[in-house]
Amino acid sequence: MEDINYSRVKNILKEIPFFEDFNEEDLDYLSGQLSLRSFGDGTELFKKGDIGDYLFFIVEGNVKIQLESPFYKSIYATVGRGNSIGEMSLIDEFPRSATIVVTESAELLILTKNRFESINEENPAVGIKLLKGLARSLSKRIRGLSGRFADLA
What we know:
The protein is an alpha+beta fold. It has helices at 2-15, 24-31, 88-91, 113-122, 124-152, and strands spanning 35-39, 44-46, 54-69, 72-80, 84-85, 99-112.
């Protein structure tokens, strides 16, 4: 059973754009570092203000990102297959910035902060690729937000 899950995780990684720069050996290593879990509709993955210590890669399904502020009630965005959620929790110690709820039964790959730190110590080459992927992902989001703010001006 473990070999089937390991093989399945490796095949999933090959389909997620975040991992496009990873070679076969990297994917073999990472397949043993991530866990795969299923979550039903309405499952709250985390709440704004929670302390985070993991990130998700969406394999199947959709999740809703809910942002709240004193100035507006809430903003929603829905993201699905191939996207990641919770990247900042691997980098900083700040509380979660949004609430995430499963809107369509989801299968998610999970990378914990402890595993992330172990990867950086055990396999620095893979750790660097993960850091570059996180930086790209966060940069893409910041650019998207910058575009939205420019539209408001």
